[in-house]
Amino acid sequence: MGLTFTEKAESRRSGGGNQPWIELVYHLTGTSDDGTARDTAAASTATTYEGLTRQSIDLEPIWVDTGASDGEWTVTVRYGLTEPPAKVGESSFSFDTSGGTQHITHSLATSAKYPPATAPDYKGAIGVTRDSVEGVDITVPVYAWSETHVVDDEAVTAAYRGRLFSLTGKVNNASFKGCAAGECLFLGATGARRGAEDWEITFRFAASPNRTGITIGDIAGIAKGGWEYLWIRYEDEVDEAANALVKRPVAVYVEQVYQSADFSELGIGT
Fold this sequence. Notes:
Blueprint: E1 4-7, E2 13-15, E3 21-29, H1 34-44, E4 48-49, E5 52-63, E6 72-80, E7 91-96, E8 100-104, E9 136-140, E10 143-152, H2 158-167, E11 171-172, E12 184-194, E13 198-207, E14 211-216, E15 219-224, E16 229-239, E17 244-255, E18 260-261
């Protein structure tokens, strides 16, 4: 008994919209070998159909006997849109504004204290105990994004890969992708070669805004870069109204914890 491959009545289901698709369903008999069945389906169906590309061939055995010429299959061939591979110079972009977590020891303002007349005034310090200021974790603005670029193989030299390594964990020393100097942190890059001609490289960044005009307790005029670290020194003072010893901010320090660098060296524009 030879191979037979015939289209079934329930064939040609389809869907439209932005992702159109068509399924062709066939009845295959004459082999118990799934490899032969798949090869027969591939040879007997077109690689494109109604402007769509063949994406998959699915086999469902109806029955398979031990004889090489015995076997019956339902074969489903699915066609759909296939995105062409990105070309050198093309890029894609994704972003995330879900923010990050920061531990703070000082509030923007104390909204209320109870009892109003006798509760000690800590000038915004949060979670004050006898020995420390415990603070609280809050969500702060962090804008994270990634860019995927297709780069010619000749440009992805050992020196370029080393440059990406050296720029990781640095902040921008000049305006970059809409971020002022000091606001953008380069988180690193991942890359993979596509064949012998080009690379697909994904660059990851996070942005945190620079701030000016910050006031903490009675200390005003504080400025902080987006990725600088701010901390507060507290000392014991007497709150005359509450007749209590309290911890209050007496000094504010802004620390540089990341080196800065020229992000134009990434080679993806600024």
